[in-house]
Design a protein that fits this description.
Elements lengths: L2 H5 L4 E2 L8 E4 L1 E4 L2 E4 L33 E4 L22 H15 L4 E5 L5 H14 L4 E5 L2 H14 L5 E4 L12 E5 L10 E7 L10 H10 E11 L4 H8 L4 E5 L11 E5 L3 H6 L5 H13 L2 E5 L3 H13 L5 E4 L6 H9 L5 E4 L12 E6 L8 H8 L13 E5 L4 H19 L6
Parallel strand pairs: 6-11, 6-12, 7-9, 7-10, 8-9, 10-11, 13-18, 14-16, 14-17, 15-16, 17-18
Antiparallel strand pairs: 1-5, 2-5, 3-4
Bound molecules: zinc ion (ZN).
Length: 438
């Protein structure tokens, strides 16, 4: 690839750029303050090197940028190789409900509106975007499909490769060793967008509510900067945060809902049970009698379950208290657990009856026919989105579309109420589409 192409719609620190590139200082002074032009965050008064140069610590992981650097760019020319053959090569077919959502998204993207696809987990949201993406590529638009989670990008890459078989694509993430390629379709982590400037006519942001994007102003700025001034974006999620929901209410963001799972059964609602000072009891090796009775019942009936606890330190005492109560046959699991994958697989293989887990299992896992119990659901670690995602573990399988979700807490928290409200709202809409109650 020539030097020019590598700068199309990019902003890169170079010692010198091609003749038709433009350059700007990487760090600029705005009044008394200094701002990084790659991530648009403010420097701290202490962000200075021994040689007096200023540097940005916020985007350090993309390589150190100092006040001695310049960022080079060439305005995005949309100069792509001609696609030979059909753009959309996906062999699948959308359900009527998915098709309706896909048409709504296509209509909005034609109008270049910023939009949100709010689809329940298991609705097939990736495929719903395909018709609009095919249209955008046919317009010669440059498109990015991004996610805060690298595992989402890695999982998506082969699917997009198959669905858009003749469209050159590139995958970018922090551990990538393959060299950068100028392509019409870019799949990358949100961090990688910091290397782009006014490049994309359309940006699809997958799992928009996931950490760290949801809490990071830097990454939110990255999306705005990488998008062309004439461009637009599509957010995908099952659990939009309050900020996104506010934008929807204020009509700043168009929304397409898909409130029904593919099997047509409504989402399980969260049942709340109050337990007084469960931490004090746990310190004495005991769990609330009603929780113990519920789990004993599950074991008797052969009902498999996930028990979510707030913190890693809670796993061991909870496991011990369950053992005391005769509830055995499960394992504990957390993010840094070396045997994490094997334990999750054991649950999948049904060689264990339950897992006691932290929020790591809130997304991306499917076990058929399970119940979900949350202990300490009022702990701040369980955000509204986390609670909805956790509830969404239940009833995913076509043969077992129902199940129980129980949250035990010391007091009814706002986050729990908001999660119930979100599920109720989706179910009201799902019912209108013919969804069946559990
Ligand atoms: Zn920076």
């Amino acid at each position: 690839m020539n030097d020019e192409q590598s700068l199309f719609g990019r902003q890169l620190p170079l010692t010198a750029g091609p003749a038709n590139s433009s350059a700007q200082p990487a760090i600029v002074s705005v009044g008394q303050r200094k701002q990084c032009q790659r991530c648009h965050q403010w420097l701290l008064p202490t962000d200075q090197l021994p040689n007096q140069a200023w540097y940005c610590r916020q985007c350090l992981q993309l390589g150190r940028l100092t006040s001695q650097d310049k960022l080079y760019t060439i305005a995005e020319p949309n100069r792509f190789a001609q696609v030979t053959g059909p753009i959309l090569t996906w062999p699948g077919k959308l359900s009527p409900m998915q098709g309706t959502a896909a048409t709504a998204i296509l209509d909005l993207v034609r109008q270049q509106r910023d939009q949100l696809l709010w689809a329940v987990t298991g609705a097939g949201k990736t495929e719903i975007v395909y018709p609009a993406l095919a249209w955008a590529l046919a317009q010669n638009w440059r498109v990015a499909w991004v996610s805060p989670r690298v595992d989402v990008c890695l999982e998506l890459a082969p699917r997009l490769q198959q669905a858009f078989g003749h469209v050159p694509q590139t995958l970018l993430h922090g551990n990538q060793t393959a060299p950068y390629r100028y392509c019409q379709l870019t799949l990358c982590t949100t961090h990688q967008l910091l290397r782009f400037h006014a490049a994309f006519d359309w940006i699809i942001v997958d799992e928009v509510d996931a950490f760290p994007l949801a809490t990071s102003p830097l990454l939110q700025t990255a999306i705005a900067t990488a998008q062309k001034p004439t461009g637009s974006h599509l957010y995908l999620t099952a659990t939009p945060g309050e900020q996104l929901q506010r934008q929807v209410r204020q009509k700043r963001l168009a929304v397409t809902y898909l409130p029904l799972r593919y099997h047509g059964v409504l989402l399980p609602q969260i049942a709340v049970r109050l337990i007084w000072r469960w931490r004090e009891s746990l310190a004495k090796g005991k769990l609330a009698p009603k929780l113990v009775r519920q789990l004993q019942g599950y074991r008797r009936r052969g009902q498999r379950f996930l028990l979510f606890v707030p913190h890693v330190v809670d796993l061991k005492p909870v496991a011990q208290a369950l053992q005391q109560a005769g509830i055995v046959g499960g394992l504990t699991v957390h993010a840094a657990d070396d045997d994490r994958a094997a334990k999750v697989q054991a649950m999948r293989d049904q060689t264990v009856s339950f897992l006691i887990t932290t929020t790591i299992l809130e997304r991306g896992v499917t076990f058929p026919d399970i119940a979900v119990v949350v202990l300490g659901g009022d702990d701040p670690v369980f955000s509204t989105a986390a609670l909805v995602q956790i509830a969404g573990r239940v009833g995913r399988h076509h043969d077992f579309p129902t199940g129980e979700v129980t949250v035990y807490c010391h007091s009814q928290s706002r986050r729990v109420r908001l999660a119930q409200g979100m599920i109720a709202r989706l179910n009201r809409q799902g019912k209108r589409l013919g969804g069946q109650r559990q």
